[in-house]
Amino acid sequence: MYKVFSLVLMAAMAVAGNVKQQAAAAEKRPIEPLQPLKVSPNGRYFMTADGKPFFWLADTDWLLFSKLKREEAIKLLDDRQQKGFNVVQVMLLHTAKVVNVYGDTAVRKGNVSKPITTPGDNPDDAAQYDYWDHVDFVVKAAAERGIYVAMVPVWGSVVKEGHVSPAQAKQYAAFLADRYKSQTNVIWMNGGDIKGTDSIAVWKTIGRTLHEKDPGHLITFHPRGRTTSSIWFHNEPWMQFNVFQSGHRRYNQDTSKGDLHFGEDNWKYVAMDYVKKPAKPTFDAEPSYEEIPQGLHDSLEKRWSAADVRRYGYWSVFAGACGYTYGDNAVMQMHRPGDKDHNYGVFNNWYDAIAAPGSGQMQYLKDLMLSRSSYFDRVPDQSLVAGTVGVKYNRILATRGNNYALFYTCNGRNFSVKMDKLTGKTIKASWFSPRDGKYTEIGSFENKGVHEFDAPGDTKEGNDWVLVLDF
C-alpha cells in the first residue's frame, strides 16, 4: 500500500513539475516583435502596424534611464508587463548634466548637441558602456516584453533655463533620430511639463527634426499641468497625437491664473481636443499620481488613491480618449533609501510602490475597452443619460460603439438611461467592476423608454462601477 501511494505521489509530483515547467516556458515565450504604432484612419485611436486596436496604457517612469540598474529595469518592466502596461513614459535628459546610476554622463559639459558615446557596448567594460548604451538596453528590454517607450528628449525645465538653443536642439534631435529610428518600439514625447510658449522655437525644432529624420515614429508634446498640447501644436505637421496633463490639484486647489480651470474634471480636456480639426488621438498623459499629496507640495495633504486614478482613467477614456497614463509618486521618481533628491513627500521606495493597488487595476480599463468589437467606431455620447449627467463626483460618463454602451459612475449613484436611443430589440445589462475586472449580470430588458440602474453597494467614494449594455 505504501509503495503504491509513493508511486502515485511521485507521479503527481512529476505532473505538477511538468505544469510548472510549462508555465515557466510560457512566460519566457518571445513576444511578437513590435512594430511602430499608427493612428487609425478616423484620427481618434492608435492601431498596430497590421491594423489591430491598440489601447495606450502607460506607466510613468520618468527617471528609469538614469536611476535604475539593468537588473532593476528588468524588475520594473517585468512587473509592468504582468499588470498589462504596454507603454512606459521616460525622460532621456532630466537635467543638462544628468549622470546615470553607473556614473555615465549623457552629454559633454551640459551641451545637448554633444552626446557622449564610446565604441562598443560591452556592459562588463566601463570604457565601452556609456549612458546611451544603457538607454539602448532598456529600450530593447521593453520591446522584448511588448512595451513601447515614449521618450522625452529633454525635460522642459532644462530648455526654459536657457541650456538649449534651437541650433543645439536640431543637432541633438538628429542624433536621437539616427540612433533610434530602427528601434520599432520608440515613441517621441517632445516637451516635458512645460507650456509650448516657453522656448517654442526649440520645441518646434525638436519636433520638426525628429519627424523629418525619423518619420516612422509617432510624436507628441508633453505639456505643463492643466494644459493640453493642442493649444500650441495641433496643426504642426510633426504633431501626430495630443496629450494633456490634467495635473495633481483637486477642485478647490485649481486657482492658478491663465490655465484651464477644470479641476479634477480631466474629461473636459478630452472634450476640448475632440472637436479640433483635423481629428487626432488624445489622452491624459499625466493625471494625479497615486500616493502623491493633493496639490503636490504639502506632504501633510491627503494623498491621491487608487480610486482617484481609476476615476481619472474612466472619465477621460469614456469622454473619447484613446488611452490613459498611470503614475505613482515613488515609481515616477524611482525613489530608493538614501536619495537626497526626493520630492513631493515620497514615503516609500519604487520597488515597493510598484505594488500600489491602482497600478494593478489599470489593466481592467484596457481589457474592457478592447473586449468589444468595433473599437475604432467608439464615440462619447452623453445623450444616452436620461436627466442630469451630474457634476464633479456625481458625473456619469457615457460612451458607445455599434453594439454596446458603457456608463461610468465613480461613486455608485443611481442613474437612468434612454434605452430607445440604442439599437436592437433587447438590451443585455451587467455591472463591471473597475476594482477587479469582474462582471455581475443584471439581466435583459426590452429596448424602450427610460430605465433606471442602481449600482451595487452604497453611494460613496470609491464605489465605482461601469454599466455595460450589449445589444
From TrEMBL:
Q: Give the Putative collagen-binding domain ranges.
A: 379-470
Q: Which Pfam families match?
A: Apiosidase, Collagen_bind_2
Q: Gene3D superfamilies annotated for this entry?
A: Glycosidases (3.20.20.80)
Name all Apiosidase-like catalytic domain ranges.
Answer: 40-372
Give the signal peptide, or none.
1-16
Is the keyword Hydrolase assigned to this protein? yes
One function term, GO molecular function aspect: hydrolase activity
* Key words, A-Z: Hydrolase, Signal
Question: Could you identify this protein by its name?
Answer: Glycoside hydrolase
Q: Which organism is it from?
A: Niastella yeongjuensis
